[in-house]
Amino acid sequence: MQGAESPALSPGKTGILMDWCGHEWQVKIKEHLAGPGPNTFGLHPENVKITRTGALKLSVLPAAKGWSCAEIFTTKLLRNGLYLFEVGSEAQKLHPQLVAGFFTYNETRKHHYNESDVEISRWGLQNNKNAQFAHYAEHEVPEVYRFELTHKSNLHTFIIHKTQGEVAFYYLDRKYPLKTPTLKESKAFYRFSNTTHHPDYFRVHINLWLFQGAEPTKRIQKDELQLTVNRFLYQPE
User: Fold this and answer.
1) What are the angstrom distances between the C-alpha of 148 and each of 91, 118, 135, 194?
2) Which one-letter DSSP state was computed for residue 182?
3) How far is Cα 158 from Cα 150, in angstroms, rounded to an integer?
4) Which of 38-52, 158-172, 210-224 is the least confident region?
5) How many Cα atoms within 13 Å fall on the side-chain side of residue 208?
6) Residue 221: what pLDDT?
7) Dihedral sign, CA of 179, 162, 150, 41?
8) Strand, helix or coil at 90?
9) How many CB atoms lie within 10 A of CB 131?
10) What's the CATH architecture for 10-236?
11) Per-domain residue ranges for the chain?
């Protein structure tokens, strides 16, 4: 809801719903431990908010028992094409135990071959690179390309281009339109073969969660337990 910072949530037949960036999203609510993590999700009213500027703000917050994480996903299924996610400066400061995920997935399938992920995380280790592209091509373990976000930028744009036969990932340290970047423009790029993939239907998921469900202890002042996603754009193939 633009103009006021608000949870912007409303009850729907399938759960708590919200409108953002031209799409309807469902807020994930799990009172008992569930994946990823395992964690609980959506138990704090501030886990998912829309800011005054219309950005999505996800936060990991203390709950009655442990911590509550945040996740939303589109209610409608999308297909192959371009997916753009633009995030703010908190991406560089995430607590090393946190994982921010942006991915396409169809949970009704019996395998993960339709899943393509951008993940921002140090996976619990302060010295790890803090971002990766991951794609499940034909195994239950993903292929992964790791890299470091640009430290001097306050804006990070990720583009996933899903086509029949391959999935290409791009990272740019600035605002970028919804189009395929050139390699020269990209700060990180990787292309995965997708021979088992077909023009399937996917939900888009955006989440912020605790790696292995572990409490974010030993925090330092600059660590963030929240992430701002400025915009999401989708263009079908």
Assistant:
1) 11, 13, 18, 25
2) P
3) 13
4) 210-224
5) 28
6) 64
7) positive
8) helix
9) 24
10) Sandwich (2.60)
11) 10-236
Residues shown for the chain: 237
Answer whether residue 4 shows pLDDT above 50: no
| pLDDT score recorded for residue 194 | 75
Whole-angstrom distance, CA of residue 217 vs CA of residue 112? 32
DSSP classification of residue 177 = -
Please check whether residue 211 is in contact with residue 98, taking contact to mean a CB–CB distance below 8 angstroms: yes
Beta carbons of 233 and 21 less than 8 angstroms apart:
yes
Predicted local distance difference test score (pLDDT) of residue 201? 84
How many angstroms separate the CA atoms of 37 and 68, rounded? 11
Q: How confident is the model at residue 203 (pLDDT cuts 50, 70, 90)?
A: very high
Tokens 């999308």: give the residue.
78
Distance of CA 207 to the CA centre of its chain: 5
What is the residue-averaged pLDDT of the chain? Answer: 89
Of 169, 167, 181, 170, nearest to 80 (Cα)? 167
Residues 6+ apart with CB under 8 A from 224: 90, 93, 94, 95, 98
Cβ within 8 Å of residue 108, ≥6 positions away? none
